[in-house]
Design goal:
The structure holds 2 protein chains of 2 kinds. By secondary structure, chain A is of the alpha/beta class. Chain A has 10 helices and 12 strands. In chain B, helix 13 runs antiparallel to helix 14 (388-414) and helix 14 packs antiparallel against helix 17. The chains are: A alpha/beta, B mainly alpha. At the A-B interface, helix 2, helix 3 and helix 5 of A face helix 1, helix 4 and helix 11 of B.
Chain lengths: 296, 588
């Protein structure tokens, strides 16, 4: 795992406060990748930036002037009902979709102008992981290492994560990926992303198909990644997960941002709209009230 | 957690991945190429360790060898006949060669055009590749290479016996085949590059979801027009110089290259350089073909950077995805009131009809049907038939071809249905619906569909041929029998050997089940022809030889009909039981 040269100032336990800016230098941690570079970032530096994104599918507006910023070491949860535009957002951010309007910057690199450079910074875990069915687990990891031009000790990192997910024997055996269950494929994809320690992680429903033990590991790993400086954008329907992990949340409905901020700010947001909300309510309750209000 | 396919022995050092020893792959394209090889090696490892898979592979290889052997025999007879034509035999052979390779060039280009629509715009690994830091041009060329292989391997196989016959007729050594293979590589590359360039250009200009269908339809249309054009010019006149107005015109026609600016001309020139011992000719041809191939790759490079940029490619991929349409009210969907209480059979029949009408490939499917019918009708319309006997004889051949087309259509449309349905077996098998209800609806739909097509082809074509209308009832009976039996065979074999993991329907048709179905349906066609040959033979004898049918003859017809009827009913009953049992025992 990473060994920061200077300890990062831990994000405030009070989610109502943004992280104080601080100089965080990492070596061997997230952001340095395996290319031997060094990322010097200010805690609080914007790493994921979407400005004025618009996306239409025929007559259907999937995203309507969507703005988003995610800072170093931040976990941002994107919430919303089905068809709200969450997956569209993630696909645009990772370069799989082109927006009709707007800009995307990843670690200061414009996605439209330097897509290869931007994608090097991203670790994407889609909701339906694709793996080549006729490869073994380890061969797939080798392929990913080659595609991302990893050198050095990526294999050790891969084994480390495979052991965490209890997949080391399966991945190194001659069993092909077509025999894997959905959860096993998901773990391989997680390993493929984590072994290269990207500074940006985009997770689309990452817990689907995982067993409870792996879910706990994933949560711990995501938190650890963020603490070591990675910026995490998480799209999920599991509000308890968002509540547990996220520093900030965004609620998307019909392609528009209804709310963006912390849980406390959501509470205030509802109060301002004359919606009854209590301070001890869960994120799920607040979310349902917010979306119900919007539907009305 | 252990996968069922793990061998039960301790993991040894030899099982460790080679990369664990510290080897690093620095070139991302090497990683992709290496992975392709590994996929093939892993597939072979799986097959080798499974006896049933080996049986399937060997069966397919044997059938393929038989097919190639038949082609070799037919090519030898045809080319030897042409070679023996006095004075102009060699010229005729050369002309045939040029036409054959011009056709091959066109077929590879057409095939690559259609294949690249899948590899470039429909492959399942595209999101993985496009979200990686790989340059999109590298991915484009990787996919282009895959399309080239897929587009040309089958045509290459068919050309092997053709070239082998040429080698034997000209008494050449094995160096001829080596040269033919070496020259074929740039030839196929340039043909495939043309096809891929066309599809890339079209989808870049018209990035709409329906364009893939449109291109498939256009490709089929071009092929039909090309075939019809060739057929209507009566190329058999080449065998009869007196058909031409002047002999000199005929000889000049033979001597002129079939397509002076296409690589096929250079390919044939290179081979003939070997035949005549003209090394300079061989080098010139190799150089020209190499230049064509490089130009083709250059064209793809230009299209991949300037026309089909990354943004355009992503737009095209986005256009290929299903559009999220809002559902209308139940009353607007055309579902009749009270549908919940309709019999299940009617529900499933309506489902089959809706699937067919809403199928995104219906235009290409329908165009394929129309193209097959058009090619077939044009072929027989221009057959040289001078006498009633010849016309009636050929009408029997017409029956054979018509049944063959019905078999081909059933492979294309009926056979994949169980596999496509069993993709979602967990929905069906977990419900109280019995498999017979779904299978029954499919059978009714497919029988109706094939009966319409089969009766249309088999019964309308005799009218075009001008044959005796008294034969039509026999043809009608044969067509109806085929239209009934083949869907039963398709459902049974398709259910027993389903292929539920596929990227396109062709993978289902070319699976082992598809091969088994093809053999079974052709066997049934042969049986039908053997049985119907008897009453048709009696018809000819009565009509043209004043033969009077005796009691024994009628009894023989009766016995044949009875046995044939029992066989058909037995096949249908057996296939019906087998398909149900396959569904009940299906393990998802």
């Amino acid at each position: 795992m990473a060994r920061p040269l200077a300890a990062a100032k831990k994000l405030s336990a009070d989610p109502s406060k943004d992280a104080d800016p601080c100089l965080v230098i990492f070596k061997g941690g997230f952001g340095s990748g395996e290319s031997g570079g060094l990322l010097i970032g200010f805690g609080g530096e914007i790493v994921i930036e979407a400005i004025g994104l618009v996306k239409n599918y025929g007559g259907l507006c999937a995203l309507d002037h969507f703005d988003l910023t995610v800072k170093t070491g931040e976990i941002f949860a994107l919430l919303g009902p089905n068809g709200a535009g969450k997956t569209t957002t993630i696909k645009i951010l990772c370069g799989l979709l082109s927006s009709d309007q707007g800009q995307v910057r990843i670690a200061g690199v414009e996605m439209a102008e330097e897509p290869q450079k931007a994608k090097t910074q991203i670790g994407l875990i889609p909701d339906e992981p694709y793996v080549y069915p006729k490869l073994t687990g380890w061969e797939f990891l080798e392929l990913m290492a080659g595609m991302y031009r990893l050198n050095g000790r990526w294999a050790e990192k891969a084994v480390e994560y495979l052991k965490i997910f209890e997949m080391d024997a399966a991945a190194r055996s001659r069993t092909l990926l077509e025999s894997y269950s959905h959860g096993m494929k998901q773990k391989i994809v997680f390993t493929a992303v984590l072994m290269r320690r990207p500074p940006v992680m985009l997770l689309d429903e990452p817990l689907v198909g995982l067993d409870p033990k792996s879910i706990r590991h994933v949560k711990a790993i995501v938190q650890s990644c963020a603490q070591e400086g990675a910026s995490v954008l998480l799209s999920t329907h599991i509000l308890t997960l968002a509540e547990e992990l996220a520093n900030r949340i965004g609620i998307l409905m019909n392609g528009r941002v209804q709310f963006m901020g912390t849980k406390l700010e959501l509470h205030q947001f509802l109060k301002d709209r004359h919606v009854e909300a209590h301070s001890g309510e869960s994120l799920e309750d607040l979310f349902l009230k917010a979306t119900l209000k919007e539907e009305q | 957690m252990k996968s069922p396919s793990c061998r039960r022995r301790p993991v040894s050092r030899t099982d460790w991945a080679p990369a664990f020893t510290g080897v690093t792959i620095k070139n991302s394209m090497d990683a992709l190429t290496l992975s392709r090889w590994r996929m093939m090696a892993n597939w072979w490892r799986l097959v080798r360790g499974n006896r049933w898979e080996m049986v399937k592979i060997v069966s397919v290889l044997l059938f393929g060898a038989l097919l190639l052997g038949c082609l070799d025999w037919w090519f030898y007879r045809a080319l030897a006949y042409v070679a023996r034509v006095p004075s102009i035999g060699n010229l005729l052979m050369k002309k045939l060669f040029e036409i054959a390779f011009l056709s091959s060039f066109s077929l590879i280009a057409l095939s690559a055009m259609v294949t690249s629509l899948s590899t470039h715009f429909g492959a399942a690994d595209l999101p993985l590749l496009l979200s990686s830091p790989l340059h999109h041009l590298r991915i484009y060329f990787q996919k282009a290479f895959e399309a080239m292989i897929h587009a040309s391997w089958m045509i290459t196989l068919v050309l092997i016996p053709f070239l082998s016959v040429m080698m034997r007729l000209k008494e050449l050594d094995a160096g001829f085949m080596v040269l033919a293979f070496l020259l074929f590589i740039p030839f196929a590359m340039s043909a495939a590059a043309v096809g891929i360039a066309f599809s890339s250009l079209f989808v870049a200009v018209f990035p709409r979801r329906k364009l893939t269908e449109l291109l498939s339809v256009l490709g089929v249309l071009v092929f039909v027009l090309l075939y019809s054009g060739i057929r209507l010019t009566l190329p058999q006149r080449l065998m009869r110089p007196d058909e031409m107005e002047q002999v000199i015109q005929y000889v000049l026609y033979l001597e002129s290259p079939a397509a002076p600016f296409l690589p096929s001309r250079w390919y044939v020139a290179g081979l003939y350089g070997y035949i005549t011992g003209d090394k300079m000719r061989i080098l010139e041809s190799a150089g020209a073909l190499g230049a064509f191939a490089i130009a083709g790759l250059g064209l793809l490079s230009f299209l991949g950077t300037r026309v089909l940029s990354l943004k355009k490619w992503l737009q095209v991929l986005e256009g290929s995805a299903p559009v999220h349409e809002k559902l209308g009210d139940a009353n607007e969907s055309g579902i009749p009131a009270g549908i919940g209480k309709a019999p299940l059979s009617r529900l499933f029949l309506m489902k089959e009809l809706k699937f067919f009408l809403r199928d995104s490939q219906r235009f290409s499917n329908v165009s394929f049907i129309l193209a097959v019918c058009a090619i077939y009708l044009v072929s027989i319309y221009k057959l040289p038939m001078d006498t009633p006997q010849l016309r009636n004889f050929l009408s029997f051949i017409n029956l054979a071809l018509g049944l063959f087309i019905v078999a081909a259509l059933s492979l294309r449309f009926c056979f994949p249905q169980p596999s496509m349905e069993l993709q979602y077996a967990w929905i069906i098998l977990a419900s109280p619906i019995r498999p017979r209800e779904i299978l029954g609806a499919k059978l009714i739909f497919n029988i109706g569909f094939l009966a319409l097509i089969g009766v249309g082809i088999v019964c309308v074509s005799p009218v075009l041929l001008g044959t005796d209308l008294g034969l039509i009832p026999y043809y009608l009976a044969a067509a109806l029998c085929a239209a009934v039996v083949m869907p039963f065979l398709a459902m049974a074999i398709g259910s027993a050997f389903p292929k539920i993991r596929f990227e396109n329907i062709i993978q289902i048709e070319t699976s082992f089940g598809g091969f088994l179905y093809a053999v079974s349906s052709l066997g049934f066609v042969g049986l039908t022809l053997a049985v119907f040959a008897w009453p048709i033979r009696y018809f000819f004898q009565a009509r043209y030889m004043n033969y009077v049918m005796m009691g024994f003859d009628w009894m023989w017809i009766g016995v044949l009909s009875g046995v044939y009827g029992v066989i058909c009913c037995s096949i249908c009953w057996f296939c019906w039981r087998w398909s149900q049992r396959s569904w009940e025992r299906f393990v998802f």
